[in-house]
Write a structure and sequence with these properties.
Helix content is 40%, strand content 15%. It has 29 helices and 24 strands. A seven-stranded mixed beta sheet has the order 2-1-3-4-5-6-7, with helices on both faces. Helix 22 links the parallel strand 14 and strand 15.
Length: 729
């Protein structure tokens, strides 16, 4: 496709401090394959760095000097420490960018940073963070320092400010555009002034004919419209396109034409093919009616245009995400809370990559499974994934990956892990999974060997009745067994926990908490987070609420967004009253505290006694059985051992000497078996041309020795090999 268009791809403030949201990198990578010029910018990190700088804070404090409203004692304290903040801010930002590591010593001695309200509970720091190293402790203290300044900005300068979201309230459950429209028209704050200044710099530098605004979350929707407002006023010839996760879930029924005072088009679902069609239309090569999944205003009406005959671009043809133009070494690694999994979302820079489009399960009744980003499952090959990983590493010089799949498929993860090991890639990665039976202990060990450090998955409500109603396809016992396999392999396990699912009773909530307590007690879960069930318009519950015995009560659609729904649950408990107790108990469980407390101690109201056996999880772990199939392959994770025959004549034994990263160890066996096994080792290696199947191993043994394979497979020899790196996958 020949095109004269130049695109500017923008992520408006705010998403993440530690890493760019990947939508623009995917689009830029795809446009590269078509020879279409583009430039991308993460205005979120750029505005944050402008605001939290000596010059930025000086402007903030100057605004406070002219404020005529009363301030809280906390803000009064911060204002009176303004010189200390101005003196320290640039050094702290450099530290959080990993450019000034020696500052950790000064931060940790508690004499360098000015402290306000966020530091009031630091007497619990040792308990919450344990033996955290000096760098991490300093990073947490520096994060509190920034949050104090964030409180100042929110209270006195801009109530919409948040480090990873901006004006999120305006975008949540926004069935009407009225509130957003009103706030867009209000005078700018220092934040939107900085946003416009940065936006203008990008326009002048890239000279685009099309600006694409990526809106993944409600927390960057308002800033996207502020970008549109500026472009319409200053650069009316530029066409403005809005897309991303928010549009895909919330704006599928949009009819309010005022939205198009600030943008020209809204594209839904995968953006590659709709964007190509739109470029052709803007360049006069395609009629408007032949656009793809695109809203536009025609006259005073909003019209959905989907006359294109092309199909979506296959995932294999979307190209490698391109991180060029982004200030990768300027992002901030912060540590907000002691939750070890939540830290990964805010600390460290991760290259984001998908293994597959959509969800291979696609049945959960609380999930938006009717939408394309879940419903349309299309996996990539392990080879292509690793090709893209190598390209991204070469570009970014960073080897951390977050596979951002809805749920990473176990079979594909196995192939990716094997390919990583074959290529000897040194990477660190984490992902979302389903706690399903295919994640065996051996697969967990393979994933660990390939660089996996953590997995997150939905336990949701730890009740088998409700899990069945959710169509999760798992049981609590199965979740415990899978989590134990990951934990034993040295992989951190995080659980998404849900309360308030339709028809959930008080008894089920307490029983679910008991299940969670036992999971931490048994050490098979290290992290978790409770969230209240939310009914969405595109989930089975939202589409058929009566089937789940709940009643939709609003909000009434008024032309803008439609996703979050209100509902009554006549058969369920008063769910919200459990919020504080569930979160408090979980925080303690994660730190090994309160595991022996009666559950009622976590709540300020009377609760029923649990009906769950105190050994339910322990019994489930003891009952786990290994199910091995003949078509599974055998893989040796280690190096080739040294082999020799030792001992006197007629009393010889075969000796294998193994060298792994931690120790050397020796294994003895019958000489004839040892000689045969030495040849087998070369077939077990990951680099072997063809994986050896268990059935082939069995056949080779029985042909060689005319003995029963089952006895050999259960022998001490095989047991020790399996304990030390022989995997059945």
């Amino acid at each position: 496709m020949k095109s004269s268009s130049k695109l500017l791809l923008i992520t408006p403030p705010f998403t993440q401090l530690n890493t760019p949201y990947p939508a623009t990198t995917y689009l830029k990578g795809f446009l590269n394959t078509k020879g279409i010029g583009s430039y991308q910018a993460d205005l979120g990190i750029e505005v944050i760095l402008d605001l939290f700088s000596k010059n930025g804070l000086r402007r903030v404090f100057e605004l406070l000097e002219n404020a005529d409203s009363e301030v809280s004692p906390n803000i009064f304290r911060i204002y009176n420490l303004k010189e200390d903040y101005l003196q320290t801010i640039d050094s702290v930002i450099l530290f959080l960018q990993n450019k000034n590591p020696t500052l950790a010593h000064s931060i940790c001695d508690r004499t360098f940073l000015p402290e306000a309200a966020r530091f009031e509970h630091l007497e619990d720091l040792d308990w919450a963070f344990g033996s955290l190293g000096i760098q991490d402790r300093a990073r947490h203290l520096a994060t509190l320092y920034l949050e104090d300044l964030g409180d100042l900005i929110r209270e006195m300068i801009d109530p919409h400010f948040g480090f990873s979201r901006y004006a999120e309230r305006l975008g949540r459950t926004a069935s009407s555009f009225d509130d957003l429209h009103k706030h867009i028209q209000l005078p700018n704050t220092i934040i939107t002034d900085m946003l416009w200044q940065r936006l203008d710099e990008k326009i002048m530098a890239s000279k685009p004919s099309i600006v694409c605004l990526s809106v993944p979350f409600p927390g960057n929707l308002f800033a996207a419209f502020k970008c549109g407002q500026y472009l319409k006023e200053r650069y009316p010839a530029i066409k403005i396109v809005l897309g991303g996760g928010y549009a895909n879930t919330e704006l599928r029924s949009i009819s309010d034409s005022r939205v198009f005072d600030f943008i020209d088009y809204i594209c839904l679902d995968d953006g590659e093919a709709p964007l190509l069609a739109l470029i052709e239309h803007i360049e006069g090569q395609r009629e408007q009616k032949d656009l793809m999944r695109t809203f536009a205003r025609i006259g005073d009406k909003v019209v959905y245009l989907n006359g294109a005959t092309e199909r979506d671009v296959p995932q294999k043809d979307t190209g490698t995400p391109d991180y060029s133009d982004l200030p990768l070494f300027d992002y901030l690694s912060v540590i907000e809370v002691a939750n070890p999994m939540h830290r990964m979302w805010s600390d460290g820079r991760w290259n984001k990559l998908t293994l597959a489009h959509g969800c291979y399960w696609g049945k959960c009744t609380f999930c938006d499974i009717s939408l394309d980003y879940i419903r349309h499952y299309e996996p990539l090959t392990a080879k292509l994934i690793c090709d893209r990983m190598e390209e991204i590493i070469a570009q970014t010089r960073q080897t951390g990956f977050h596979f951002v799949d809805e749920a990473a498929p176990p079979n594909l993860l196995r192939e990716v892990a094997l390919e990583i090991l074959r290529r000897r890639l040194v990477v660190t990665w984490w992902t979302n999974i389903r706690f399903e039976k295919h994640f065996t202990p051996d697969l967990s060990r393979l994933l660990k060997a390939s660089g996996c450090i953590a997995v997150a998955g939905g336990l949701e409500v730890a009740s088998d009745r409700l899990l069945k109603l959710m169509k999760k396809g798992v049981t609590v016992a199965q979740v415990a067994q899978v989590a134990d396999g990951f934990t034993q392999a040295g992989i951190l396990v995080h659980a998404y926990l849900m309360y308030g699912f339709p028809t959930e009773t008080e008894q089920e909530t307490i029983d679910a908490l008991e299940m969670v307590r036992q999971l931490f007690e048994q050490g098979v879960r290290q992290s978790g987070f409770w969230h209240l069930f939310a009914m969405t318009a595109h989930s089975p519950v939202g589409l058929n609420p009566s089937q789940f015995e709940v009643v939709r009560t609003g909000p009434k659609f008024a032309g803008f967004a439609e996703n979050d729904l209100f509902h009554d649950d006549p058969k369920g408990a008063d769910h919200e009253q459990f919020s504080a107790g569930l979160r408090k108990s979980l925080f303690n469980f994660m730190h090994g505290v309160g595991l022996d407390f009666p559950l009622k101690e976590w709540f300020e109201f009377k609760t029923p006694k649990t009906t769950i056996s105190p050994r339910f999880i322990a019994t489930s772990l003891e009952a786990r059985e290994e199910k091995i199939k003949p078509n599974q392959c055998m893989v040796w994770l280690g190096n080739m051992p040294q082999f020799e025959v030792i001992g006197e004549i007629n009393n010889e034994v075969a000796a294998f000497e193994f060298f792994d990263k931690k120790m050397d160890w020796v294994l003895h066996c019958n000489v004839e078996v040892g000689i045969w096994l030495m040849d087998i080792f070369s077939q077990w290696l990951i680099t072997a041309p063809k994986a050896l199947l268990l059935s082939e191993f069995k056949e080779a043994y029985e042909q060689k020795f005319s003995l029963q394979f089952d006895d050999f497979f259960k022998s001490e020899l095989i047991i020790r090999l399996r304990e030390n790196g022989l995997l059945i996958l």
